[in-house]
Structures are given as structure tokens and as C-alpha cells.
Description:
By secondary structure, this protein is of the alpha/beta class.
Amino acid sequence: MLERLxxxxxxxxxxxxxxxxxxxxxxxxxxxxxxxxxxEADVDTKIVFSLTEKIKKEAAKDIGGIExxxxxxxxLNDEIIKLLGKEKYELQLEKKKLNKIMxxxxxxxxxxxxxxxxxxxxxxxxxxxxxxxxxVHRPAAPDQLEQLGKxxxxxxxxxxxxxxxxxxxxxxxxxxxxxxxxFIDTAGRDVLDYSLIKEIKEIxxxxxxxxxxxxxxxxxxxAARKQVEGFKSAxxxxxxxxxxxxxxxxxxxxxxACSETSSPVLFIGTGEHITDxxxxxxxxxxxxxxxxxxxxxxxxxxxxxxxxKGKEEKKSEFTLLDFAEEIDKMQNVxxxxxxxxxxxxxxxxxPPGLLDIQQDxxxxxxxxxxxxTPDEIQNPEIIKETRITRIAKGAGVNAGDVKDLLNQFKLVxxxxxxxxxxxxxxxxxGNISGLGLSQKQLRKLAKKFKGKMF
Length: 454
């Protein structure tokens, strides 16, 4: 959906950029196309028409020192950003002090999974974190939180027998004081009814949370307004996290509805992977929609996926084992097509299917490395034809896949030298050899995009 929305917005901007004259007729045409695009994204019609009327009014003004074309492009860009909230909001979390973050949401919103995603997000950033389960209505909730806690190595406090959330809080209150962040899971319902509102108020009064975050799915669209207002009537909602942003036609409606109710979107969920959560910035979001990438989001994802607290850098030569570890870390960042979307100049321009091929190739490389002996991993230069055949057979891949692995390893080793990994500066410079793209493929891509990739 977001790709379709982005493409339509890009078409509008391209029409302005390519116009010979910027007159009233073109401005009206642009306004109509913008209306259709936003309404299709499930943005409230009153908001859409109010926005386009403002754009037409502002576009009619003459501003000295700037071309009409540039004026209209900037106006459109700025108004779309304002529509989504204008500013980026962040939780102000104090170190060496307990911050209690309570989560609300209806059934199916992805609340429990989102809690785990955020717990890992902040743990990777140096916060001592834990999770507390106060959902006493959904039988699987404590087990789910427990399993997620083990997966991300974050302590979980639950009592599977107790059915009073207030008593569970009292049971673990003293232990929780040893942490800087406590992510608190609460019960949901199919609908926001009296019993849920009553329970939310009681828990809020007992816990006195630092922040209260509402989790909603993007596919509810404009209905987000009613849901936000309903939860706000029960407690002071600090902000919203919107999940399922990777596959719905109503995401625009949900984002705008939150903005209109003065409920800042703090994070968005972009997939099922534990690292598929991003801090929300309207400016960066619009930049990605227009295919201009979001380098900051990319670096955050890489940092979150690859940081190892307290792990010492290896001093030995960069080996195939190190290369395998970096492949695993790259997998932790997320699918390659999502990574490519964040690289300025790349988003939406990659040839169809290319990244799927690379993703499949990386999987084969991992199998090939697992099929090698310790001596081969430490000294890949000894791997000749007979060994290649044996490794390929053991890994269930072709000999060509093993050769590709060895060639790619040589390229990466030339960059990494004795360091454990190629540094983040390479990503900032657009070096994506870590994605499994050969130099020849990179040259082809550069030629295809006429030097506009980065």
C-alpha cells in the first residue's frame, strides 16, 4: 500500500517538476490528484479538502526569490508532513531511574509483540529493561511474554495463577525497582467497553506509569480517531504505536487520525521480525514515500541488530566465521528489500526480484559455511575444486554458490582487514557490498540509475 501511495505522490511531484507553466489550471489538477490519493489512503475527506484548499490558496501567492515550481513542491511536501504530525516525538527516559511504560490496546493489535520489540530496542541502547505481564484475561498472554523475553534476553515478571493485576504488580514491585525501564503488558478486549475502561483506570491509579502507550493496527484507518479518544477518556495516553504498517491501504488514515487527536505516533511496526520497529518521524516517513530513503532509520536498524553489549572486538584475521556472523547480523536487520528502501536514491529503483535473488544467495552462503571444516573456515585459501564440490554437496547448493561465497568473502575481507566488521561509515557512503551484490552488479545499477543511486 505504502509503495502505491508513494508512487502516486511521486507522480504528482514529477508532474510539477516537468511542467512548463505553473498556472491555476495545473494547481487545480494537482489538488484533485492529491485529493484522490489521500482519500484512497483512507484520510478523512474533510481533512483532505481543507488541506487542498489551503494548498491552492498558498500556491496562488507570489514569493520573491523562488520559482513557482519550487514553491509548489515545497508547499506540498511541508503540508503532507504537517498532516502526519509535523514533529518527531520521543520518550524522555531518565537513566538510573525506573521508567514505567504501560501499554494499552484491543485484541489483535500486536500489543505483546510490540512490547518485546520496544524492550529490545531500548535494551540495545543501554537501558536495563524488564517486562511485566498484567494481562490476566488472555490465557496465552503470560506464556507469550515469557517466550519473547527469552528470545531477546530480557527478564519477564509474570504470575500465571493470579487473576488480579493489582496483586501481580505488588508482588513484583520491589524487584522492578532494580531496572531503568519496565514495559507493562495489560489486558485487551474485543471492544473498548466499560469493564476495560474500569480496569485501565484501576491499574493506572495503582502503578502510576511514567508513560502510557496505545498500540493500534494501521488497518483500522479513520477509526483510529474513535479508538484514541476512547482510551484517552480512561487515562492520559502519552502516544501511539501503529502496527502492520507494511501491508494495509488504511495506514494513511490511521496516521492522520492520531495527528488530528493530538496523539503523537512514537513508533511504527513494519513487520513480524523482532527488529521491525522504527521511531516515527513525519519528515523521514514522507522522504521514504517519495523514494528519497531514510538513512537515519537504516543506521538505527543496523545498530540495533549488530550491537553486542560488552563484547570485545576480535583481534584475529577476518575469517569466514566472522563473515558468517555478519551475514547473520544482516539477516537480523531485516529483509533486503526493506533495507534498500531506507538507502537514499535506492528505494523503489531496484530492478524487480534482484533483492530476492540476493536474499536467497545469502541463505546458501550460510549453509555452505556450515558445511566447511574448521580448517577451511580459518584458511579459505585452501578451498580448491575438490573441496568446493564436497562443500556444495554437504550444503545442498551448487559449486557456483560456494565460489560466489569465496569471491564475496575476498571483497569484504579487503575492506574489513583485521577489524571484526566493516564499519557503519560504509553504509553512510552507500557501500552495500554486504548485501551480497557483486562489483559488477553494482556497476550495472550505477549505470542504470546514471549515478543517482547515492
